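## Example record

The block below lists the input lines for one assembly entry, exactly as stored, with component labels intact.
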Amino acid sequence: NAGVMQNPRHLVRRRGQEARLRCSPMKGHSHVYWYRQLPEEGLKFMVYLQKENIIDESGMPKERFSAEFPKEGPSILRIQQVVRGDSAAYFCASSPPGTGPNGYTFGSGTRLTVV
Amino acid sequence: GQQLNQSPQSMFIQEGEDVSMNCTSSSIFNTWLWYKQDPGEGPVLLIALYKAGELTSNGRLTAQFGITRKDSFLNISASIPSDVGIYFCAGRSNDYKLSFGAGTTVTVRA
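Predicted structure tokens for the full assembly:
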């Protein structure tokens, strides 16, 4: 997982607070993907971004969740007014242009706990 | 999204044994991928399969892409303690999206 940096590794939030998860892709990777993993389940696609563009957010809940990948800086996944059901591991992957999932490198994830 | 059924859900094996797990889908995939996830880490790609019927090896790992394009299996031969972890199958849905199985948890008895 070297190269895709996610922080924080662990995040605890009270219900109603905001959670901000950061992902810095590997050098040379301009495509970022966010996946969510609930306990004892596989990863589920949330959103696919390129620099300054959201390409596909079909896996993201319509309310409270948003994602961005600005021209400068990391990609941010923001969850507003968190609820207990948001507790999960959130993984970011990046890839170079043109490789798609075959070229994914995953980060180590952010484990969000809502209390 | 597509539903992937991965089995078994978990397994305890003796060191030196061979391990087999499989994944089936209700949909056709063009690519099957197998990942391993260690505790507290993200998934790491083990093997990628691109063609129906393809059999690919990576060290002690062997995986096959089913002829129907709706299934795949992974074999681990002569298991060792570091094989402990969760193994996920994933199918490539389109140019950028993966659908994952729920995982097979492997625990090795020394």
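The two ends of chain B are 39 Å apart (CA to CA). The first strand of chain B starts at residue 4 and ends at 7.
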